[in-house]
């Protein structure tokens, strides 16, 4: 029984939620381990559409156990709201959902600071989700963060909030000329949330390590994507967590050798939301339309920028994450294209580069080198068997696999659970979709 890690391999929104929902059918545990409610996963099950930000996607399967691990940052307002919304839709949490006491808490000042800092940056703003993610991770690294174990201990919360709020209010009033936050209001609001969350806060490590020893199928659910990683991404246009496979292990507090399979989720083209370099971006194309392609951000509703598949970045992602196989999503979006381009190299400073140059600030000089493949011009949305895919779709996928030097295990042909071609199951079990 394997432990599988699902990692976003581009700039996020690769369709991780949909792939995890399918794999969760055969998994006992699903663990979310980094990021916060900057993530947004849309899962379509029959006529029902679910939008999840913090709670692991696996919660939608009835028999799974789910955990939000230590490396995450949790906005308790959002978490309680998300739980309530799911509860009204019949999803249960008792005895199957736990939150790590070590996860950090997003406080009201983090959200305010996120907005103020973005404003201050002007035309070099990151384009964050304004959910307080960056400021919360900053406090964690600066060792002035508030954790879930602090929140659920009223005395401890009072002590820590008293000291941190003093500092934050100084920043708000002196640096930004804003009103200070009132201790009483923040304290009371957060204590009410603590009451609701307390039963779910539990040290998940002993449970998880016991399950690992007894060879249960555990799925580690990545959020964001490799090129949003604070170390390996297009810095500074990144998020503030480590979104790569190693970051997911660290956030879940598990050793990398417990992972049997790293599944990299990639779209068959590229998107990014927010600012930052995007070598293969196309500003206008008759079929690359964010509305038709459902490329509207799940969290902020912003239109995603779109472009051709970038094999230079994809191969780098395979290397950074140690990807074992690829889940390719959104094949159907290319169904109408006459021809499709793949970026196979970067012309940069007089040379062809097959790996992305680290000087992100010079990426506007990159000239992508494209290979053009013929489209298949027929619908794929009904296909569930690899052999039935049009020849040109197979050729396109094979070329991606070849450039990435990695096999493709899953191909998604639509947003719904059933719209999937399983070439082989990354968890080695029959996926009954
Ligand atoms: P995530 O953040 O990686 O989970 O991805 P999102 O849910 O933010 O964005 C992916 C979007 O594409 C969602 O609206 C999904 O319902 C949708 N989607 C996922 N796979 C496919 C697919 O194969 N085809 C199409 N047309 N839509 C898909
Ligand atoms: P999922 O899990 C796509 C982007 C933001 C912004 C940058 C920094 O749905 O794939 P932040 O609020 O994290 O400080 O913003 O990161 N971003 C995402 N883009 N998908 C995501 O998550 C993202 N989470 C953050 O748009 O460019
Ligand atoms: Mg998303």
Account of the 3D structure:
It is a single chain. With 433 residues, the chain is α/β, with parallel strands linked by helices. It folds into two domains: 3-69 and 204-422, Adenylosuccinate Synthetase, subunit A, domain 3 (Adenylosuccinate Synthetase, Chain A, domain 3, Alpha-Beta Complex); 104-200, Adenylosuccinate Synthetase, subunit A, domain 2 (Orthogonal Bundle), CATH 1.10.300. The protein contains eleven helices and 19 strands. The protein has helices at 16-23, 76-88, 108-121, 133-141, 148-151, 154-175, 183-197, 204-213, 245-252, 311-321, 391-404, and strands at residues 3-8, 29-32, 41-45, 48-52, 65-68, 73-74, 97-99, 104-105, 218-221, 261-267, 270-272, 305-307, 309-310, 325-329, 339-348, 351-353, 367-374, 408-412, 420-422. A nine-stranded mixed β-sheet has the order 7-5-2-9-1-10-14-18-19, with helices on both faces. Strands 13, 15, 16 and 17 form a four-stranded mixed β-sheet that branches. It has a two-stranded antiparallel sheet with strand order 3-4. The two termini are 19 Å apart. Guanosine-5'-diphosphate is lined by residues 8, 12-18, 40-42, 44, 294, 298, 329-330, 332-333, 412-415.
């Amino acid at each position: 029984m394997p432990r599988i890690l699902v990692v976003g391999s581009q700039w996020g929104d690769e369709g991780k939620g949909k792939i995890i929902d399918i794999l969760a059918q055969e998994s006992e545990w699903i663990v979310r381990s980094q990021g916060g409610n900057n993530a947004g996963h849309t899962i379509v099950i029959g006529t029902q559409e679910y939008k999840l930000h913090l709670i692991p996607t696996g919660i939608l399967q009835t028999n799974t156990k789910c955990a939000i691990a230590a490396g995450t940052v949790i906005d308790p307002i959002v978490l309680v709201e998300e739980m309530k919304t799911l509860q009204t839709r019949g999803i249960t949490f008792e005895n199957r959902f736990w939150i790590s006491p070590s996860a950090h808490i997003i406080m009201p000042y983090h959200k305010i600071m996120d907005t103020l800092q973005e404003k201050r940056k002007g035309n070099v703003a990151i384009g964050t989700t304004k959910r307080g993610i960056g400021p919360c991770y900053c406090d964690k690294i600066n060792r002035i963060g508030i954790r879930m174990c602090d929140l659920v201990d009223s005395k401890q919360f009072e002590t820590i909030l008293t000291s941190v709020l003093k500092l934050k209010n100084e920043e708000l009033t002196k640096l930004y000329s804003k009103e200070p936050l009132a201790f009483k209001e923040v304290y009371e609001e957060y204590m009410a949330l603590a009451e609701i969350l307390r039963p779910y806060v539990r040290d998940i490590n002993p449970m998880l390590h016991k399950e690992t020893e007894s060879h249960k199928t555990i799925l580690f659910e990545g959020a964001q994507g490799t090129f949003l990683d604070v170390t390996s991404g297009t810095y500074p246009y990144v998020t503030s967590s480590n979104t790569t496979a190693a970051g997911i292990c660290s956030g879940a507090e598990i050793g990398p050798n417990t992972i049997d399979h790293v599944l990299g989720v990639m779209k068959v083209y590229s998107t990014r939301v927010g600012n930052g370099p995007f070598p293969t971006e196309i500003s206008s194309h008759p079929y690359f339309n964010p509305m038709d392609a459902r490329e509207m951000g799940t969290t902020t509703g912003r239109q995603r920028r779109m472009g051709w598949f970038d094999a230079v970045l994809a191969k780098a992602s395979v290397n950074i994450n140690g990807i074992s196989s690829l889940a390719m999503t959104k094949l159907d979006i290319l169904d109408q294209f006459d021809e499709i381009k793949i970026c196979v190299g970067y012309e940069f400073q007089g040379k062809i580069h097959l790996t992305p140059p680290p000087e992100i600030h010079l990426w506007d000089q990159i000239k992508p080198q494209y290979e053009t493949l013929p489209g298949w011009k027929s619908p794929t949305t009904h296909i569930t068997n690899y052999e039935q895919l049009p020849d040109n779709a197979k050729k396109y996928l094979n070329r991606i696999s070849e450039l990435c030097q990695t096999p493709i295990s899953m191909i998604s042909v639509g947003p719904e659970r059933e719209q999937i071609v399983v070439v082989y199951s990354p968890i080695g079990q029959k996926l009954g979709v």
